[in-house]
Amino acid sequence: MPDAGSNVIMQPPGIWPVLPDGRLRQFLRHWAAQRGDALLAPRSRIDPLAMRECLPHLWIYRWDDGQGDFVCNLAGEAVNEAWGFGLAGRSLQQVMGAANAAVVGERYRQVLRLPALQYSWRPIAPGNAVEKVCHRLILPVADADGTAAAVLGMTVYDYDRFVDADKPINVAPDVAMYACATLPRDLPPP
């Protein structure tokens, strides 16, 4: 399911992503525990207190018909710091420009449509600059009626907060997608 400017790689059924950071694993395990036998975790069952260490790295985007774009409802401190401004209330296009927003918006639509979780681990390389490296996990969450409603993400950045603070962020070229219907019923490893 590749889209323009990126490579979306569907992963084999029956596996969880291998995540290098304990906070990412905690985030995924919480989502998986809250979904139970359903495809998605209801947003109302996501408990921020159960994932305290994850909070600075979390963000939520929901589709806004009026803007015709995904709009950020929440962004943790580490996410806002990496972007250099607060994301809450801003559309994808306002945050990352039209070209990148088109690619990322299509990925978010795929996460909600399939539904699937998405993991990217490649460096995000700003043009002619030192890389801001990140690991990003995006999970679909459902409204009360079970409809895929928003993407809940966690991004763990690795960059020098003084030297690289003003470097822009571009879209990672490759992402791995895991269809929710094929995820194991047992919880992912801690």
Task: Describe this entry's structure for a reader.
This protein has three helices and nine strands, in the order E-H-E-E-E-H-H-E-E-E-E-E. With 190 residues, the protein is of the alpha+beta class. It has a single domain, classed as Beta-Lactamase, CATH 3.30.450.20. Strands 1, 2, 3, 4, 5, 6, 7, 8 and 9 form a nine-stranded mixed β-sheet that branches. A hairpin with a 5-residue loop joins strand 7 and strand 8. The chain is globular.
What does the main sheet amount to?
9 strands, mixed
> What fold name stands as the CATH topology?
Beta-Lactamase
Average of pLDDT: 87
Overall CATH architecture: 2-Layer Sandwich
What distance lies between the first and last C-alpha atoms, to the nearest angstrom? 30 Å
Taking all Cα atoms into account, the compactness measure Rg is: 16 Å
The string of secondary-structure elements, in order, is EHEEEHHEEEEE
The domain tally reads 1
| Dominant shape | globular
In percent, how helical is the residue content?
Answer: 10-25%
Report strand %: 25-35%
CATH top level label: Alpha Beta
**Beta strands, count:** 9
User: What's the number of helices?
Assistant: 3
